[in-house]
Amino acid sequence: QVQLVESGGGLVQPGGSLRLSCVASGFTFSDSCMGWGRQVPGKEREWVAIFDSVGNTRYADSAKGRFTVSKDNAKNTLYLQMNSLKPEDTGVYYCAADCLPGRTFDYWGQGTQVTVSS
Length: 118
What we know:
- By secondary structure, the protein is an all-beta fold.
- Helices cover 0% and strands 53% of the residues.
- The chain has strands at 3-7, 10-12, 18-25, 34-39, 46-51, 57-59, 67-72, 77-82, 91-100, 104-108, 112-116.
- The strands form two sheets. Strands 2, 4, 5, 6, 9, 10 and 11 form a seven-stranded mixed β-sheet that branches.
- The protein is globular and about 40 Å long.
């Protein structure tokens, strides 16, 4: 059974940073394509970053240059380092596994809230 448990969300001021973590279980973590998505108020859930099965990363335009996705196979943990946060980054961030065509995923975590506000 695939489980994805996110943590690290919270309230941060504009320009600040947060690091999200996702502890995964129930599948072969080291070989898996994983990523992060988010749902901001008033919009559908969208992809943010992908870390594929061979270590390549891809980012949505909104995340390029500010967010970094990384993986620690020894800890079965996926990270999303978010810098230079903006109010429009506010939303629920989801860890995801098993990449599908169209930059979506088969499995999603429960999500962690990120609020960027002064």
